[in-house]
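Title: Request for sanity check on small monomeric GTPase prediction

Description:
We are preparing a figure and want to confirm that the structure record we downloaded matches what your pipeline produces today. Could someone re-run it with the sequence below and paste the raw structure tokens into this thread? We only need the token string, no images.
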Amino acid sequence: QPQQGKLSLTDELHWADGFIIVYDISDRASFAFAKALLYRIRESHIGSCKKMVESSVCLVGNKQDLCHMREVGWDEGQKLAMDNKCQFCELSAAEQYHEVVGMFMKVLRNITSNFKVKEKRRPSGSKSMAKLINNVFGKRRKSV
């Protein structure tokens, strides 16, 4: 909930370069909440210059060590990730921190590669227009 002096969730969604949405595979309610967050991320970026394409999103099913208490199947998580065009993995943060580090590294690599793609883009419209005007009016040609 928004608190005085803090950003709202909508504001936070606009400045973030990446998202890691974590749910508990042994808790169906946490999966429903993750689904709602993915929807909210997608909706908040639709109107803001295709940022969803530029944002790295990873859906993570945690507590893989509690498979005997599983309420959310791997295939459900995979389908949700595919529907939202994001990465997916299941892991156990309690047992294998290497998996958590690997997942964070993958998200960070995606974010940095998105920045490299942004750097290769053509100049903004105002820079292009300035160059065009300079080319047309900047150099006087001698009439033939």
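Thanks, this matches our download. The mean pLDDT is 76.
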